[in-house]
Design a protein that fits this description.
single chain, alpha/beta, Rossmann fold, 8-stranded mixed β-sheet, 11 helices, 19% strand
């Protein structure tokens, strides 16, 4: 006779917790510490829907992969996780042969040092597969997030092996049952994989295959970050589009009208039993 009221009570508490998590995410999105130009990109990157799809909660241990100099998602994740969770940021290596990567890491470190009230609980690690692979303690993370990075591992040489090694590092960091969230520029499936070499676009089937080979299980895909206006065929590849706009002022309005790239949004899980 007491079972039904108890179930109602438990369901009510669950609803309260879910609502509280959503409110905390809304607070992080509205944080005054966010860069105004970054906030303007929310309409393209859909951070609330994307992070909810990946199952982010404020009490999680999270690893963000290669946020670059500006830390677009770091600006959201750091305040959200600061009090109850843990954020690791896997940055570029400071001895990289790429000046862009070295400079990006230093600019990111300068940014977080400038706002300790936001970033003081954040831990920076080093990632550059296959040389630097320890992005967080093994089996410690609830969630690993990588935004627009798979194409970098593929294009920088090493092909499949480099991509699989990157996924393997993320696999090692996750707890059994932990989630990997992947967002990247999407190559239409009727196009040749050879276009991955320089365009910045990746085949969704290819990304799924590489993650699966590293041990992950695909849980779901979403069209949260889809953009049907993007043909994925541009003179400067994905960098023709905003925010890069490499085609210059003469083509600026054309590419602004298209918006940011069409992107896959994939949710993987590390199996509970290897």
């Amino acid at each position: 006779m007491r079972l039904i009221p108890l179930l109602v009570l438990l369901f009510g508490f669950s609803t309260i917790f879910v609502h509280a998590d959503e409110l905390e995410l809304e607070g992080a999105l509205a944080a005054p510490s966010r860069t105004p130009e970054y906030v303007a990109r929310d309409r393209y990157r859909h951070p609330a829907e994307t992070l909810e799809f990946f199952g982010l909660r404020p009490d999680m241990t999270v690893v963000e992969i290669w946020p670059g100099a500006g830390g677009w998602y770091t600006e959201i994740l750091a305040p959200l996780l600061r009090d109850k969770g843990k954020l690791y940021v896997a940055q570029f290596n400071d001895d990289s042969s790429s000046a862009y990567y070295r400079d990006s890491r230093e600019a990111f470190l300068a940014k977080i040092r400038a706002k300790p009230e936001v970033y003081d609980q954040l831990s920076v690690t080093t990632f550059n597969p296959p040389e630097y692979m320890l992005i967080a303690p093994a089996n410690s993370a609830d969630l690993v997030l990588t935004f627009r990075n798979v194409h970098n591992w593929y294009m920088r040489g090493g092909g499949d092996e480099r991509v699989i090694s990157a996924f393997s590092a993320m696999y090692q960091a996750l707890k059994p049952g932990g989630v990997l969230g992947v967002v990247d520029h999407r190559l239409p499936e009727d196009r040749s994989l050879s276009e991955q070499e320089a365009s910045g676009y990746m085949s969704q089937d290819y990304v799924i295959r590489m993650a699966t080979q590293a041990g992950f299980e695909l849980v779901a895909s979403a069209e949260i970050n889809a953009n049907p206006q993007d043909s994925a065929s541009h003179p400067e590849g994905v960098w023709s589009l905003p925010p890069s706009l490499r085609m210059g002022e003469s083509a600026r309005q054309h590419y602004l009208a298209i918006g940011e790239s069409d992107r896959m949004t994939l949710k993987f899980r590390k199996p509970t039993v290897d």
